[in-house]
Fold:
Amino acid sequence: MKEQTIAKLKKQLEQELKEVEQQMEASEMPETTELSNYDNHPADNASDLTDQLTEMAIDEHRSDNAEEIKRALQAMEDGTYGVCSVCGEEIPLGRLEAMPKALTCVEHAEHHDEGLRPVEEEVLSASPKFSDDFEEVEAFGSSDTESDQNM
Structure:
């Protein structure tokens, strides 16, 4: 990869890191709206909690983003930037221009994030498993008429 291209991407990453760090410094945890919870409606407490959790999630995302940028900048210093950290193949320039902090090729980008996905996604995205057990249960009777069963 050309030195000029790497210098351009490095400048872009440094600018993005500076912006993310400024956002992290400027972020404040939302304060509760009440001094006492004694006379608060539960929905008011829930709103405060939701605001706090949302801000915490945004801060965590910013922190993760900053770490990814720092890893990409370190790879530039080490001379390994532009090479997939999984397979060792060269990362296409188009991918690096679109996502300068990428350290893997497109094929291995999914493998890089596997451990970061919530466990609940496995259950939510799982397709229902059907078996022939229904026919055994139906033998005991059903509300279907004879014409429904012959379809």
Q: What stands out?
A: Helices lie at 3-26, 42-78, 93-98, 106-113, 120-124, 133-138, 146-149.
